[in-house]
Amino acid sequence: MTQHRITDDLEALLDVLPSNIRHAVEKANNNEKLLEIVIDLGRIPAARFVDGEIPLLNTEITRAEIDHITERIGTFDADNRAGMERTLHRISAIKNRRSAIVGLTCRVGRAVYGTVDIIQDLIESGKSVLILGRPGVGKTTLLREAARILAENKRVVIVDTSNEIGGDGDVPHPAVGKARRMQVREPMLQHEVMIEAVENHNPEVIVIDEIGRELEALAARTIAERGVQLIGTAHGQTLDNLLLNPTLSDLVGGIEAVTLSDEEARRRGTQKTVLERRAPPTFDVLIEIQTRDRFTVHQDIMTSVDSVLRARAHPAGSAHPR
Questions:
Q1: Torsion angle of alpha carbons 209, 211, 217, 223, nearest 10°?
Q2: Pairwise CA distance, residues 87 & 172, whole Å
Q3: pTM value?
Q4: Strand 111-113 relative to strand 101-107: parallel, antiparallel, unpaired?
Q5: What is the pLDDT of residue 321?
Q6: According to CATH, what is the number of the domain 5-107?
Q7: Region 299-311: what's the mean pLDDT?
Q8: Domain map of the chain by residue range?
Q9: Contact 86, 11 (CB under 8 A)
Q10: Which residues are bridge partners to 183 per DSSP?
Q11: 8 A C-beta contact, residue 89 and residue 107
């Protein structure tokens, strides 16, 4: 079994917490499994671990405690996220209608070396790879490690929308190796920076986290059509989820309704109106992260999408063509 080396700079995150919260986190004595610390005004703070959540104090959070943290971290950007220089930690804010901060999610950022070993052959194949998973399952960690490994032999540019891949500050975290990093001023401009990276910096590989808007999906297709390898992530759990997402389905070719002739419908054994893939997929390979140590890999997205759509076209009870 592959041994993973982990660096998390956890001390830096604990340093910005009020002493009573810090001591409670340390007392829990489960730092290796710590995911995030949740702090809301007027509520009891909690620590979330891989295997559950525990309360940290018996007292409610005050405005002074929230201010204590925000005064010791970076500035919150348009996406209400702030970082800590030279670390991978992320602090996200919940604001009221007057833009005052009333809640904080302090996410522990970890560089885990070795996580990409199981799919390293796919990453290094030159094919574009899309990593799919729900929030907090380890997509960005995998992406960071992929960027580091590819940058050893290729020109890699990271489009870092929330500084989650390369960390906060102007100097990227060592976990990305020799990969170059372009920061994004506002999340809505991510697609523009993706195109700028290709036009200005001659990359062989573009690494992009959280493709979530239609313009970003279109930019990804443009980049792929220029012969640049893409390594990206998106929220979701399965290929079926992605196909049903109107914003992101184009990443795997999109779907459209097609009306068949009576003869063709009889030949296929389907209804007259069926769903078919609209275009070639932007990505070649899809990796579904089911859990932190269990992946489902579609090595040929085009074939997988066509199989899913054919299965839907057949009457209930027919075999799924895998």
A1: 0
A2: 9
A3: 0.85
A4: unpaired
A5: 35
A6: 3.30.450.90
A7: 90
A8: 5-107, 114-313
A9: no
A10: 160
A11: yes
